[in-house]
């Protein structure tokens, strides 16, 4: 069922059992889990079914730290959320990502890989991926000829990625959501304030607004914020009428530990003999799986570095493509349009002609996790958006550990390639000195926002507990990558959907018990 | 300089005046100034610049004699060849380069991550035209 909240009488009261705020991959994945249950699910979406500039403007904010993408276009504020412009890269977190690592400050989730593992197969289906197989052996049997580089397996392993079509949640699941009798989608319903009981131990209601000037109230037994890492933090911080520093923020943690993946072209691999290296290659809308070179857990520990990978991109000649961060549009509509055009061109068979099948040179592209850092954070600005909500200020901060980890990653790749006698590696200028902590202008992120309501058993170290419940508030949950304690080396979508499904199961158990 | 190395070196009187590739009149010891893998990956001017960068980075090895001495240092498992032909020297140096990578004796020059041995080869190469 669907209601445009602009058409409701001002001051309407919306009631249900579960209220999910945000209809992106996390929110829609959760809502779908509740189809055909006796429970009424309220799904709130701030935008409509198309990207609109005035709605996107609600996400506009300042960036005062490390150079970052425009906030109003890095996240999409409409039904389907940011799946509207993602590329479909999926891989699981690794077991080491969950562990407390002495060399990574603030690492260690309260859950382990085995706790999330059962939910990955379900997430795979929602993201229209292949079988839940992330071992190279499986794929080599399926596709003979996927030959890895001859590197020492004690140093590098081939981490498998699978590729979603990519699933545009807004298109793929729109009918299912609209047809579900017990799921009530409200578009143009921006959550702007959360109100709790007198003790601030239980959420009573959420206030929603839209640009048509309507304000409504939503009441439910359980509330789930699934609005993205930045917006989840923003909503908690802005809900400060009863808790002056914001809801769930007794220990000044909400908005802190903002993490991204450090993504940047870092080096070139030159081979003495041309090779296809098909195992490592990716083409839009075509590739089902590929691998990236990942550092083994043992070597991460030995060198006291973060988890990260290097992907290979063929280079027809020794030229550099512009960095993503230099080309990312300010306009969210432009980002969606770009993807739609790519997809249409592909379907029409009008994609650029394929480069030759053998290559002598590859660009090596880093995806490195970020060390959790309390100074890397989201705060509220004095400026308010059109709905009267304070805008966000993003202060993305990096640490020397990240730079050293990337440096070491390429030292190891260079060493391994040299040992194998198959070529040489040439690193970029900014990676030539071990103690150089400067970053290049080309450094960007993967548009992966994580960590702002991090998970930890201790309320003094995390905003949510192992069940994604906000510490101290018994019916308020966070869904999505805002709960990530560390980011790992994998793109977050698969894991955030898996984590949301885990939360959904937890809520079902809880609601059934109380019934 | 050790005796064997000296003898080998003394045979290479003209080596440093030869072009890096396409030489038909190959002389003994030419291999010392021929970083074979790099020669397949980049052009002579690049090797020249890498060599100059090494000499600037390691001034103690900025001369032909010092470089040759280091290049002809034998190691356990990789003795100096008994023959002075280029093939034998290439095999010796190739082994030496592999050992460098295994032991982490890697130097980064103009971004290129090279074994110390091949960096010295580049340095020697750079001297021929300087």
UniProtKB/TrEMBL annotation, chain A:
It comes from the Bacteria. Its cofactor is FAD. SUPFAM superfamilies: FAD/NAD(P)-binding domain. Gene3D superfamilies: FAD/NAD(P)-binding domain. Residues 373-499 form the Glucose-methanol-choline oxidoreductase C-terminal domain. Pfam families: DAO, GMC_oxred_C. Residues 17-229 form the FAD dependent oxidoreductase domain. Keywords: FAD, Flavoprotein, Oxidoreductase. Belongs to the GMC oxidoreductase family. This is GMC family oxidoreductase. The lineage of its organism: Bacteria, Pseudomonadati, Bacteroidota, Cytophagia, Cytophagales.
TrEMBL record, chain B:
Keywords: Signal. Residues 1-17 form the signal peptide. This is Gluconate 2-dehydrogenase subunit 3. The lineage of its organism: Bacteria, Pseudomonadati, Bacteroidota, Cytophagia, Cytophagales.
């Amino acid at each position: 069922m669907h209601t445009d909240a602009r058409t409701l009488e001002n001051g309407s009261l919306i009631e249900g059992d579960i209220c999910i705020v945000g209809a992106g991959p996390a929110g829609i994945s959760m809502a779908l889990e509740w189809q055909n249950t006796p429970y009424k699910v309220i799904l709130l979406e701030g935008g409509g079914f198309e990207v609109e500039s005035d709605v996107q403007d609600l996400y506009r904010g300042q960036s005062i730290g490390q150079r970052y993408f425009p906030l109003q276009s890095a996240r999409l504020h409409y039904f389907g959320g940011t799946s509207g412009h993602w590329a479909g890269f999926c891989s699981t977190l690794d077991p080491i990502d969950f562990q407390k690592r002495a060399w990574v400050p603030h690492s260690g989730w309260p859950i382990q890989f085995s706790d999330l593992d059962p939910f990955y197969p379900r997430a795979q289906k929602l993201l229209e991926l292949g079988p839940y197989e992330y071992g190279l052996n499986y794929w080599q049997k399926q596709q003979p000829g996927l030959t890895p580089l001859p590197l020492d397996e004690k140093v590098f392993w081939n981490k498998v990625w699978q590729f979603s079509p990519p699933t545009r949640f807004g298109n793929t699941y729109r009918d299912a959501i609209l047809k579900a009798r017990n799921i009530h989608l409200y578009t143009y319903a921006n959550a702007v304030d959360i109100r709790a009981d007198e003790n601030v131990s239980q959420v009573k209601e959420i206030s929603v607004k839209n640009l048509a000037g309507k304000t409504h109230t939503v009441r439910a037994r359980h509330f789930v914020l699934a609005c993205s890492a930045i917006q989840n933090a923003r909503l908690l911080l802005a809900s400060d009428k009863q808790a002056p520093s914001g809801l769930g923020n007794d220990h000044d943690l909400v908005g802190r530990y903002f993490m991204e993946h450090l993504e940047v072209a870092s080096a070139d691999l030159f081979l003495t003999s041309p090779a296809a290296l098909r195992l490592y290659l990716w083409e839009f809308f075509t590739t089902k799986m590929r691998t990236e070179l990942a550092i083994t857990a043992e070597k991460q520990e030995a060198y006291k570095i973060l988890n990260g990978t290097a992907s290979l991109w063929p280079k027809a000649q020794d030229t550099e493509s512009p960095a993503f961060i230099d080309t990312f549009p300010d306009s969210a509509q432009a980002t969606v349009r770009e993807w739609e055009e790519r997809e249409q061109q592909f379907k029409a068979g009008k994609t650029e002609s394929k480069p030759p099948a053998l290559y002598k040179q590859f660009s090596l592209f880093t995806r490195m996790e970020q060390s959790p850092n309390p100074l890397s954070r989201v705060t509220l600005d004095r400026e308010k958006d059109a709905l009267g909500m304070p805008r966000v200020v993003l202060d993305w901060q990096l640490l020397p550990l990240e730079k050293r980890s990337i440096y070491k990653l390429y030292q190891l790749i260079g060493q391994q390639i040299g040992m194998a006698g198959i070529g040489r590696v040439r690193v970029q200028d900014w990676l030539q000195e071990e103690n150089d902590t400067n970053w290049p202008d080309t450094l960007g992120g993967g548009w992966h926002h994580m960590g702002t309501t991090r998970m930890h058993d201790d309320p003094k170290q995390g905003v949510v507990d192992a069940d994604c419940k906000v510490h101290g508030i018994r019916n308020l949950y966070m869904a999505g990558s805002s709960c990530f304690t560390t980011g790992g080396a994998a793109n977050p979508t698969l894991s955030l959907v898996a984590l949301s499904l885990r939360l959904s199961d937890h809520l079902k158990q809880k609601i059934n018990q109380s019934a | 300089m050790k005796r064997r190395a000296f003898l080998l070196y003394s045979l290479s009187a003209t080596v440093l005046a030869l072009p890096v590739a396409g030489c038909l009149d190959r002389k003994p010891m030419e291999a010392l100034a021929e970083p074979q893998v790099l020669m397949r990956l980049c052009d002579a001017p690049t090797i020249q610049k890498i060599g100059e960068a090494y000499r600037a980075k390691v001034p103690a090895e900025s001369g032909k004699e010092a470089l040759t001495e280091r290049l002809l240092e034998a190691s356990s498992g990789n003795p100096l060849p008994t023959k002075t032909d280029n093939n034998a020297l290439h095999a010796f140096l190739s082994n030496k380069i592999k050992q460098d990578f295994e032991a982490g004796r890697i130097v980064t020059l103009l971004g290129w991550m090279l074994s110390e041995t091949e960096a010295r080869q580049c340095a020697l190469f750079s001297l021929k035209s300087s």
